[in-house]
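writing this on my phone so excuse typos. first protein, seq and then structure
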Amino acid sequence: MGIFDFLKNKPKLTDTTSDQPHLPNKVNHKTHLDNIQKEIFLHLKPLGFKKKGRTFNRQTEDGIYQVINIQSGKYEFGDNYVIPGFKENFYGKFTVNLGIMVKEIYELSANKPKDIYQDYDCQIRERLPHLTIKQDHWWIIKGDDSITTKEIIDGLNSHGLGWLDQFETRDKICKNLETYKGTLGRVKLDVAIIELYRDRIKGEKLFQDYYDNIDIKRTHKKYVKELANRLGVNLTTIEEA
């Protein structure tokens, strides 16, 4: 990511192949995942995280929430669903998502406050294995929960919590987003929106700079203009210049 050093040696994963048999019993899946989740929460609770379902939240600044989510694979119907290398069946597996939820950006879509924010509510998102082994990975839900749980907790300690803390305040978000190359489609726009609430003049300048660098043919340019109008930002367009 350009901000933290990655592990020099990749950790040995519990499941090394994608064709190992899944547990056929849905109840077994839930029981094993509940055990893993419980141990992860025991580790996160003293750090200030609260839990609902399979998601953990910690507020680090007013309106800034760190999110950790355990995502289990859905059961997919049909014999032709799996296309190796393109579309996989993740039933019987799970992964760990990380995210940062910024209140002022979240509320732009008329979203209401929640007791617990999910990773899809976040403006900044990443997956734990993308940080630890630099690739996507889904753990197989199986009998030995302790090994899998240790891998995840070790990954959170070595990479995940540090990644979250890059964005624990608005100051850090505005500073570090420019160097972050994760799943962000509009880094500079998000920074401009945050700055509008902190330094109006600076935020408006960033908004204008972002707008000016969008290809005039892209529909996104129209969206940004409409968003600026909603926020009371007077953009200078090419026609007006």
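second protein below, same order as before
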Amino acid sequence: MLQLLGLSAHAETVYRTTLQYPDHGVAALSKDTGLTEAEIRAAFDELAALALLKPSDQFGGRLRPVSPEVGLSTLLASTEAELAGRQAQVETTRAAIAAIAAEHRSNRLSDSAIRLQGLDAVRARLEELQRTTEFECLSLNPGGAHRPDARSAATPLNEQALRRGVTIRAVCRESFRNDPDTLAYAHWLIEHGGELRTVPTVPIQMVIVDRRIAILPLDPSAPRSGALEIQSPGVMAALCALFEQCWATGTSFGEQPPADDNGCTPVERTLLRIIASGDTDESAARKLGVSLRTVRRMMSHLMERLEAASRFQAGVNAARRGWL
């Protein structure tokens, strides 16, 4: 109980016992407390150093306990002064951190792009931004399955942000539903208050924080190589508009993508556009995040419905019938 004042458990036991039996010597105190005589003497030294035992004038120099009103109150006052000093140091350090952070921010030009080299630098910056997000975090996720290391890094940060009342909206590629782990993460995000929609293809990987900072990949084909941090108001307006367009065309997680009046799903319409633009089946599979076999099966079904003998004719017929 008195460890905060600097007393060990043995010293506290001996002190309390001497207060009750001030005339007991080492042998008697050993019987009273169950401690060895060596432990009693070590406790005496400790208590004397803390001025809780003093030589007795009445009993020929034998140590007597100092009353708790005096001895313990003195130790408490000393501890309080020490804690106050530590608190002052904490406040001074807090002010120093704020000054360093302000200087760091002032060194960033609002219209310049900051290069974040490598995956570690990107994650460190995202962690910093997530902890300071005030009201909103938006993201476009063009990949299929989320990597386990990325999920483990994002989950606690997202949970903290959601508890603070931050809105989290994410747009993912429809094919992410094919990965069980990513699907489980999506369920977790929704259950904790996040929002998620899916689209057939996502144009670029992107994170937007409070509509003032965006993180974009240095190389979209190698997202783990690094990123650019952008704060330019003009660029931010364009990126926010891109996100809102993707969001408006997306399907809420948990719902089936609706078919249009021609019976085409969003994925089928996107596949027709990809093929009509001249891309190969392999390219379509990469963009949609599905297997080549799935693309060919979907395309065969569409060609049959469009009464087309070739992929090119399917694109022409789809345009003529207003499918695109």
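The CA atoms of residues 314 and 320 lie 10 Å apart. thats all i got for now
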